[in-house]
Write a structure and sequence with these properties.
The protein is of the alpha/beta class. It has one domain: Aldolase class I (TIM Barrel), CATH 3.20.20.70. Helices cover 38% and strands 13% of the residues. The protein contains 11 helices and 8 strands. Strand 3, helix 5 and strand 4 form a beta-alpha-beta unit. Helix 9 runs parallel beside helix 10. The model has no long low-confidence stretch (mean pLDDT 88).
Amino acid sequence: MVLKPEWLRVKAPQWQRVGSVKEILRDLELNTVCEEASCPNIGECFNVGTATFLIMGPACTRACPYCDIDFEKKPQALDPSEPIRLGEAVRRLQLSHVVITSVNRDDLVDGGANHFVRCIEEIRKVSPSTTIEVLIPDLCGNWAALAIILAAKPEVLNHNTETIPRLYKRVRPQGDYQRSLDLLAKTHQISPRTYTKSGIMVGLGETDAEVREVMENLRAAHCDIITIGQYLQPSAKHLGIKEFVTPEQFASWQQFGEDIGFLQVVSSPLTRSSYHAEQVQVLMKTHPR
C-alpha cells in the first residue's frame, strides 16, 4: 500500500457537527456525493454545514473506473418527493449556496433534466436567497435537455471534464471529451449570464502540457471556473494512482489558469469539484452578469 504524502492528510473532523448534518440527511432520506463518492473533505464541509446533494441515485447507469458511486444496482424510478425533501434540507441547514449533482441517468429521455428543474424550484420556494450550482452529466449530448435546466436559471452550471483526451477511454469510457467541451460552450450560448465551471483529476498519468491543453480548451469553450485536484483511489478495485502531484505543481496550474482568463481557479491536492463552491458568491460580486 502506497502511503499518502503529508499534503494529502486531512485533520480529523469534529464529529458532533458532522453527525448533526448526517442526521438531517438521514431524516430526509437524501444522498450526498460527499458520502457516496468517499470525498476526503467530508469532515471539513459537514463541519461548516455544507453538502453536495446527489439526486436521482444512488445507482448510476455508467461504470467509470475511478468513481465510488454504485453502478451495479439498477436505477429506480424518480421519486417525486425528492425535490421537496431537498428544499427542506437546504432550509434546515441554512445554506447560502447549494450544489446539486446527480448520477448519470442515461435510461431517462431527458437525462433527468426536468428533475433538476424541480429541485431548483423547490429550493427557490423555501430559500430564495440561496445561490444554486448544478453539477450535471453530459446528458448524452441532448442540448434540448440542457436548455430545460438552464431555463430554471441556476447561478452556476458545472460539468466535469475529469481527465485529458488521451486517457478518456481508460478513465471515462462512456464519456466523450469533445461532448463535454460542447456542453460548456452550448451553455454559454444558451445562457451567457450563467457561470460555467468544470473540473479535472490529476495523478492518472497525464503530463503538465496535457493539463494545460485541457485548460486552454475549457477557456475556448467559455468555461469561467476550473477545479483541479488529486485523484485518490477509492478501493483496490478502482483505477490506480500513477503519481501524487505536488502542491507546487497545483500552484503552477492555478497561476496558468488565471493568466489565460479563468475567473476562478481552485487547484490543490484536496480540491474536489464542489470544494469551497460557495466562493462563487464572491465571484458574482466582482464579475457580475
